[in-house]
Write a structure and sequence with these properties.
By secondary structure, this protein is an alpha/beta fold. It has two domains: 288 residues, Aminopeptidase (3-Layer(aba) Sandwich), CATH 3.40.630.10; 203 residues, 3-Layer(bba) Sandwich (Glucose Oxidase, domain 1), CATH 3.50.30.30. It has 14 helices and 24 strands. The strands form five sheets. Strands 1, 2, 12, 16, 17, 20, 21, 22, 23 and 24 form a ten-stranded mixed β-sheet that branches. A six-stranded mixed β-sheet has the order 5-13-11-10-7-14. Strand 3 and strand 4 form a beta hairpin. The protein is elongated and about 85 Å long.
Length: 529
């Protein structure tokens, strides 16, 4: 009883976790977008908490590890959309263009006739086809997002209320690409009440509107398959309205007619030509990882390190649509702080050192962890394991029931691994048997269709032959939306997950012998997956 009472993991509490997430997921941080002030504030908070806890700064006398990225974005002041009539009248717009699929060169010119094609849907099971009796080849298609809607604009005409597969861009585009259209323009439908894609998906639009790379990386060669695809661009409502002016239709009347009749209203917009000249600009941006450590007590083994990692960036937002990222990944960042407090409180420290690494740049390409593995604060050959956490605060809800949103119940957490070290898995299993949380390994491996094994920061350590365990409660339906808020987190579950991760890290750090890596990444090319 006393041993349990004196367990340092008892310092990890739901209330502490909630306190940290409350700050990190505050709308005042505006979604912690890379390169923005909100991320800098979050980094300052983590560094100040690390100092308050008593962690040693890992980068000489600093908790900050800076690195640079190059960010290429569409320049709205130089990007021009022109609509030219047969009478040579020209309407010009300086605008942002969101590329749903970034194809070919970054700067591009597009010119051609425009064909309105409803919602761009061909759904045989509903006897609905926006593409009948038209010839899209070589044309620029103008389509609305979503699908035929009921009068309230919330529910689809096709089946049960809510999202249906026909709205999915992957489904739409798989059909539209076969038409050999020159390009596809997507506009928000009038019943949505929105004027642009950016209004409803600010963070995602920001991601799609930019191309980032670590400074010093070789420029990627264009993918010939992607370059052959037509441009897919989200445009603002006023551009669509101007294209339709003089056609006898408005976007609103067209939507109403389609929604009521469920019949195609597609047609060539006569007498108009569209010209798009997209121009990009590049700037260098400095981002920071935050790193502090608890020094091990053994004079030799303290030079080895176990890393706990999580990312503190998210996808941003604006106005009332802030993607606060409470679960993704304020939850993991809070867990790191609570574990750091527990390790630092120990009078008898583990044999090895424990590094707490909060990385940025995850949402734009795992850049923070990649930068760390290129320029590590502890030698990689002295790095024993990485225990990564990304989204550890949710419990499966009613909407989390599809193959794309695998979630765990109140007493389960996904543990995702590449099985690099059977010894590490044995340690995890032994602790799992004694803990109040159950491990689910079903999302592990390189062949799982969701590819979660390669989608978070641990993977950069995998590539350096460092064994990893990746903890997550799953991909809920609020992933990368403003619905990922603190009110939906289960802090008692977070407490259980965090305490269990602490116990695994403590065991690995306290063993006299180092983990054996019996299935390193460097040998995977010679083995059956």
């Amino acid at each position: 009883m006393n041993a349990q009472k004196n367990n340092p993991s008892n310092l990890i509490t739901a209330s502490d976790l909630e306190s940290h997430v409350t700050f990190l997921a505050s709308p005042l941080l505006k979604g912690r977008m890379n390169g923005e002030e909100g991320l800098e504030i979050a980094g300052q908070y983590l560094a100040s908490q690390a100092k308050l806890i008593g962690l040693k700064p890992a980068n000489s006398n600093s908790y900050f590890q800076p690195y640079n990225i190059l960010k290429k974005t569409t320049d709205p002041e130089k990007t021009i959309v022109q609509i030219i009539t047969n009478l040579k009248d020209t309407v010009r717009y300086n605008t942002t263009l969101t590329n749903l699929i970034p194809t070919g060169p970054d700067d591009f010119t597009l010119e051609g006739e425009v064909l309105f094609a409803g919602y761009g849907i061909k759904a045989d099971k509903y006897n609905y086809n926006d593409l009948e009796n038209i010839k899209p080849e070589g044309k620029i298609l103008l389509i609305m997002d979503r699908a035929p809607m009921k009068e309230d604009g919330n529910d689809c005409q096709f089946e049960e209320p809510g999202w249906v597969s026909e709205m999915n861009f992957q489904i739409k585009l798989s059909t539209l690409f076969l038409t050999k259209a020159k390009a596809i323009l997507i506009v928000t439908d009038p019943k949505s009440g929105l004027n642009s894609f950016e209004e409803s998906n600010t963070g995602i639009a920001g991601y799609l509107n930019s191309k980032t790379s670590l400074k010093g990386d070789k420029e990627e060669r264009p993918n010939p398959f992607m370059s052959a695809l037509p441009k897919v661009l989200f445009i603002h409502r006023d551009i669509a309205d101007e294209l339709l002016k003089g056609s006898g239709h408005t976007l609103e009347t067209l939507q109403n007619e389609i929604d009521k009749s469920l019949k195609s209203k597609s047609f060539i917009i006569d007498g108009k030509k569209l010209i798009v000249n997209a121009v990009t600009t590049t700037k260098e941006v400095t981002l920071n990882n935050i790193a502090g450590y608890v020094e091990g007590r053994d004079p030799v083994l303290k030079n080895e390190v176990i890393i706990f990692s999580g990312h503190y960036d998210h996808i941003g937002g604006s106005g009332e649509r802030i993607n606060t990222g409470a679960d993704d990944d304020a939850s993991g960042c809070a867990a790191l702080l609570s574990m750091a407090k527990a390790f630092q409180s120990m009078k008898k420290k583990p044999l090895r050192s424990i590094l707490f690494l909060w990385v940025s740049g995850e949402e734009i390409g795992l850049y923070g962890s990649e930068s760390y593995t290129r320029d590590p604060l502890f030698p990689l050959d002295k790095t024993v394991a990485d225990l990564n956490m990304d989204m550890i605060g949710r419990v499966k809800g009613i909407a989390d029931s599809t193959d794309q949103t695998p979630m765990t119940g109140p007493n389960t957490v996904f543990v995702i691994t590449g099985n690099q070290s059977s010894e590490l898995l044995s340690i995890a299993d032994a602790i799992d048997r004694k803990s109040t949380i159950d491990f689910d390994y079903s999302l592990s491996g390189r062949e799982h269709p969701l590819q979660l094994f390669s989608r978070s920061d641990h993977y950069n350590f995998v590539e350096k032959d460092i064994p990893v365990l990746f903890f997550s409660t799953g991909l809920h339906s609020d992933y990368h939306t403003p619905g990922d808020v603190i009110e939906k987190l289960d802090f008692k579950k977070m407490e259980m997950v965090t305490r269990t991760m602490f116990d695994i890290g403590l065991e690995v750090a306290s063993r006299k012998t180092r983990l054996v890596v019996d299935n390193p990444y460097s040998t995977w090319g010679t083995k059956t997956k």
